[in-house]
Amino acid sequence: MISDQVRILKGSPTMNFLSMARKRESEGHQIIHLSIGQPDFQPLPSIIETTKKAIDEGKTSYTVSSGIPELRQSISQLYQEDFNVTIDPNDEVKITSGGKQGVLAAFYTILNRGDHIIIPEPFWVSYPDMAQLAGATSVRIPMTTDFSLNKDEVLNNVTNKTKAILINSPNNPSSHVLSSEEIRFLKDLVEDYHIYIISDEIYSDYVYIDTPVRTLLTEFDNWRQNIIVINGFAKTYSMTGYRLGWTISNSESAEGILKIIQATTTCPTNFCQWGGVTALKERAQARELINKLFPERRKVLMEEVKKTNGLSLKSIDGAFYGFVKYDFSEKSSEAVAIDILMNANVSLVPGSAFGDSAEGYLRVAFSRSVQEIKEAFERIRKYLGQ
Ligand SMILES: Cc1ncc(COP(=O)(O)O)c(C=O)c1O
User: Fold this and answer.
1) Which residues approach ligand 1 with their CB closer than 6 A?
2) Is 48 part of any domain?
3) Residues 74 and 194 in one domain
4) Would you state the pLDDT for residue 194?
């Protein structure tokens, strides 16, 4: 009954895993959720207050499709103040319903049917389905063991059909943050082959290694030629349910993105955008909270993995995921994740969700408390007989 185009979409394996865990919970099991890409803190009280006030003031109608001028202005100000990058709030910023809509709109805007987009593994689960919807082919690049870009494979796969490369740094699920050498490689790549970089920077406020780079915009003098940046409010401010994000691009691409917004959601939710204005004003406080909570959780996760025979972890550079390799079983990562859910009541995501070359890994989100992380690993060790 359903169309071919939709039938071949894979859906979200992370969400599928979450519903499996929820089902088990409804059967009375107490699950520790280390599978969710969502921080466990609430948005700052001032964000909630502004959102409520906006509803009370009747900010419940449609807004302009680009997003309210106040929010676009705040985003432009953020890039100016934090990164010294000048962006036109009218022509170069679009507010989207989540970072997800931003990625989809960027794909539709620059990819023609039949074009190729290079998607390095491991990748966020939604990219290939989005490329599919846009009628493009996703060319997947197998990952390297240190999660850095597989440069030779990228070069081997660039053809005259290649229109773009997807870059997600800090990366979900590997946590990898681009090195200066990789950035140099990307500069050469776009110069030599005139392709776009779609840069998903949604985890830009979660970085644990020493690097000054928070956005590719600071690294490319001529970023307007070929970079589209996606970011949003979900991770930094824990505003996942607000469904609020933004894109930065040249004005031509921004017009394309606007058309997709108009064709799909008309505009982002009015009162949520007002919450977004307050969030950006409070960004120092939000970053402070992240820095208070996450380096400690990261450290605990690395220690717990070390204590567990059969698990290993390269490093955690950014985001809030550990991409953990297992060698205690020959089973697929999906089977292992199900075993752990059923026997240890800990929910993780199998590596295979993030590309074929990520088989043999498990994604562990450390967006939960230190106590939960410790308890989860105690349960896993018990299940493994350690
Ligand atoms: C890499 C990556 N990009 C984009 C998103 C989408 O975020 P949003 O909730 O703003 O749509 C996510 C959410 O998990 C993500 O992990």
Assistant:
1) 37, 98-100, 124, 168, 172, 200, 202, 232, 234, 240, 245
2) no
3) yes
4) 95
